[in-house]
Design a protein that fits this description.
By secondary structure, the chain is mainly α. It contains 17 helices and no strands.
Length: 342
């Protein structure tokens, strides 16, 4: 402040040593707006203020200090693109259903991404999909079902031989125990047939509600919501629910949709999570539901850069299934390679 006052005094009264008190007051008043202006310049551009402060560690750097403090306060607002949506339940229902309609147009060929030909193959494949990808399961099950095509065959299998087949899926010892135990339970309690009721399915070794709903929805045509990691992540990003427990997520999301839509809703959401709305780098700039998403901006927003993040048929890459539905192939989807083929 003293330097600013001295400089201002020299500019207005060059050689007058005996300036009056009123002139000093006037000079001080002129210096105050100068500081305010400097502060305002420093708020939007922290780097510019820093450059001005570097040459002289004098009053100028002191002036820049408050500006830095202001800039630090402003930074968190720029780093938090997520916006909380305050909406009524009716508004939430409308937005959620609109998102599902948009996804249905983007993924009209959405389907379960596990290869199967009957309920037995689907329940086994779903159990094996824990802690691995559907692709790895699809590359492994052909050898398994070729050697053990029925519950009776798998129930009587040598565990060591099954372990060797299942090794690529990870946790192969535990999975071997589950699929052999599941097959024995089917033979002993259900006549070798996979039951079509939730309460029966969840009694089978290795079968929880998620697996049961996959089987019910895709092998028996009975509606169910499949809450896997993709589904849970996306519905929280969309603020359909803040629950993390799969059963609570299932209940909260199920209340937003007619029961008849549950199975296809699961496919739409999971397809979107695998192809566009990834866990670490969502392709926000290539997302068809960006205007409806409160988490827009968490990922790459530049359209060109976002398109490079797309996976599977959206990015021109092979999908998860070795034998996908014809509708998927018609949409440009590419079958996955067999195990060891690439």
């Amino acid at each position: 402040m003293k330097k600013a006052a001295t400089t201002s005094s020299k500019a207005t009264a060059t050689s007058e040593k005996g300036a009056s008190a009123s002139k000093k007051a006037t000079a001080s008043k002129k210096a105050v707006p100068a500081k305010t202006a400097a502060s305002k310049k420093a708020v939007p551009a922290k780097t510019a203020a820093s450059k001005k402060a570097v040459p002289a560690k004098t009053a100028a750097s002191k002036k820049a200090a408050p500006a830095k403090a202001v800039a630090k306060k402003a930074a968190p607002a720029q780093a938090a693109p997520k916006k909380a949506i305050v909406e009524s339940h009716a508004a939430l229902v409308r937005r959620a259903r609109r998102i599902n309609r948009e996804l249905a147009e983007v993924y009209p060929y959405a389907h379960p991404e596990l290869d199967f030909e009957n309920p037995f193959q689907l329940v086994i494949a779903t159990v094996l999909s824990a802690q691995t990808t559907d692709l790895r399961v699809n590359q492994t099950t052909p050898a398994l079902f070729a050697k053990y095509p029925t519950p009776e065959d798998l129930a009587a299998a040598n565990p060591e031989e099954v372990e060797e087949i299942l090794r690529p899926t990870g946790f192969f010892r535990a999975k071997t125990k589950s699929v052999i135990g599941l097959s024995k339970a089917l033979m002993e309690d259900f006549g070798g047939e996979v039951p079509g009721r939730l309460e029966d399915l969840v009694k089978l070794p290795g079968v929880g509600r998620k697996t049961a709903f996959v089987v019910l929805g895709n092998a028996f045509g009975r509606p169910g919501i499949t809450v896997d990691t993709h589904f849970g992540r996306l519905v929280r990003r969309w603020q359909w629910t803040d629950e993390t427990d799969p059963d609570k997520v299932e209940a909260a999301v199920g209340a937003l949709f007619p029961k008849s839509e549950w199975t296809m809703l699961s496919h739409h959401v999971i397809f979107h999570g695998r192809r566009i709305c990834h866990a670490r780098k969502p392709a926000c700039g290539a997302c068809p539901i960006a205007p409806l998403c409160p988490a827009y901006g968490e990922g790459e927003t530049d359209p060109e850069k976002a398109r490079k993040l797309l996976k599977y048929e959206k990015g021109g890459f092979p999908g998860q299934r070795l034998n996908p539905p014809q509708s998927y192939l018609d949409a440009g989807g590419i079958p996955a390679p067999a195990l060891g083929a690439g």
